[in-house]
Design goal:
Number of strands: 18
Order of helices and strands: EHEEEHEHEEEHEEEEHEEHHEHEEHE
CATH superfamily of the largest domain: Periplasmic binding protein-like II
Strand content: 25-35%
Distance between the termini: 34 Å
CATH class of the largest domain: Alpha Beta
Number of domains: 3
Largest sheet: 5 strands, mixed
Helix content: 25-40%
Number of helices: 9
Structural class: alpha+beta
CATH topology of the largest domain: D-Maltodextrin-Binding Protein, domain 2
CATH architecture of the largest domain: 3-Layer(aba) Sandwich
Shape: globular
Low-confidence stretches: none
Strand order of the largest sheet: 4-1-5-14-6
């Protein structure tokens, strides 16, 4: 009897490339991801559908998909009743949370959200934005934006060029680095919601023993690939007489593997470290007496 097929949603669009690369690092090869909305994956128990992240949580809630990857922002926007399997800290640009920010033109006199009372706000994240202003008891009009939201806050001239006007007073827009906002002469005045990528499951699928285990397996491998991307393995040889001074340089929370060498005066040490500490740590280890230092990339780190 053939095992059940897990229907998995992968976000199409800006997060698509990063997601496919993550699956590859996790041990799943996805083919034709740029040409097909149902690309092939080298796991007969998984069927992939490429869908917009904005819609993903609704399809998972409705059971059209057993599981999927989307942003916390869109789960909140759709008010979806789903099971959150895990947080996946990756994105198209950085590993930091993406933020939906309230922004106004740089030359605007508006300093704080309360200054926007009676204003028009444009955003794609309408429900979350409305809730944000309702909780602050600020009366505004929130309009859905089909795109190019930053342009709607720009100063425009009327046809007779006698009056300068704007389509909206402020926008709520997604940003990871703030580069696009600055390029469009916009200034942040508050963060509406922070969002990271989430792996979610349909609640009925999560109750199914087989599907739950398969979904958990995928989550474990994806998380392991993300953790590995931020770490490197480090190997080195140390004179026993230098061991104390060298080991003192290693991160305190790490427990290195120590092995005896053929030369009884030396030991081999192996440890996993944060990639960001590698460039500072390696020269220090060298000066402290370590030799044969090797750093190498990791495929997966499972805690």
């Amino acid at each position: 009897m053939n095992p059940e097929i897990i229907k998995l949603g992968i976000p199409a669009g800006s997060l698509q490339k990063a997601t496919v690369e993550l699956f590859n690092k996790a041990g799943f090869y996805i083919a034709d991801s740029q040409r097909s909305y149902s690309p092939h994956i080298d796991d007969e128990q998984i069927k992939i559908l490429m869908l917009r992240a904005q819609e993903m949580s609704r399809y998972v809630e409705d059971g059209i998909l057993d599981c999927g990857i989307t942003g916390y922002d869109w789960i909140m926007e759709n008010q979806s009743d789903i099971h959150e399997v895990s947080e996946l800290k990756y994105s198209k640009a950085t590993a930091k949370p993406a933020r939906w920010v309230l922004a106004v033109p740089s030359e605007s006199k508006i300093k704080i959200p309360k200054d926007l009372k009676g204003a028009i706000i444009a955003t794609e994240l309408v429900n979350v934005t409305k809730k944000y202003f309702e909780e602050k008891n600020i009366n505004v009009k929130v309009e859905f934006s089909w795109g190019a939201t930053e342009a709607k806050a720009q100063l425009l001239q009327t046809a007779d060029k006698k009056v300068n006007t704007r389509l909206v007073d402020a926008i709520v827009e997604l940003t990871e680095t703030g580069t696009s906002l600055r390029a469009n002469n916009l200034r942040e005045i508050d963060t509406v919601i922070s969002s990271t990528t989430r792996f979610i499951a349909n609640k009925n699928a999560w109750k199914d023993k087989y599907k739950k285990q398969k979904i958990e397996n995928i989550a474990i491998l994806l998380s392991a690939a993300i953790d590995a991307a931020n770490r490197v393995g480090l190997k080195m040889n140390i004179k026993k007489s230098d061991m104390k001074s060298v080991l003192k340089l290693l991160p305190a929370e790490k427990s290195p593997t120590i092995s005896e060498l053929a030369d009884s005066d030396y030991i081999a040490v192996e440890v996993i470290i944060e990639k960001k500490t590698e460039r500072d740590l390696v020269p220090k280890l060298k000066r402290a007496g370590a030799s044969g230092i090797i750093t190498y990339p990791l495929n997966k780190v499972i805690h």
